[in-house]
């Protein structure tokens, strides 16, 4: 019996559906409610605490390094002070409650309890068996957390692991390509698949002059044209970054196998579509302008 070979971008497609489902948490009013109950109300503090809590009571340098594209001064405005408001363990518990409420609200009780959700969780967790810790701080921290009991939360946990595993590798690929955090954001936006400049400047702490200076650096390297569009060289660089990210993140999906990856993609894409249709994401999030 032969096993079908994994297509080159199959892992990326699977990750994208998992990441869409996982990302619903960061735009959820349920997260704001749970974190607000802990005394954390600033949206940026919520974001830093929610993603960094698995690493423990870390400082702004660690968060800036692990998150890559946030301005250090913005991070330092909230970290480590946020841990004086709520300890990392309390934040993790609040995040779990918010994930539960978010998925139940967006997907509905029937989907949460459906056997397909349990199947997706099992497949995603199987993929995580091939993830590796060295050089992947956010993945490694989350991999130390216990696996929840309920299927929809097991799926969310596995999606988090796979997201952070790929994300850590992606940052290595960006650094190898010579793109700093802001340059990475600008070139991603220029592909049409990244966040709009408005979202970046609002949430990442960069100023318009810093954006313009980074754009000028990219033009000096021949990666952007005068209109802020990627040149052929810039497009090739971004393609290379994504392909290197695919290579660094291939192991979980090879471990799951082509049939398992296809099935997991099918299941999570359906859930992600349901979540999006229920209003999971704000208008105007993605785009060049």
TrEMBL record:
Pfam families recorded: HTH_67
Matching InterPro entries: HTH_67 (IPR054058)
Official protein name in the record: SalK
Source species of the chain: Streptomyces doudnae
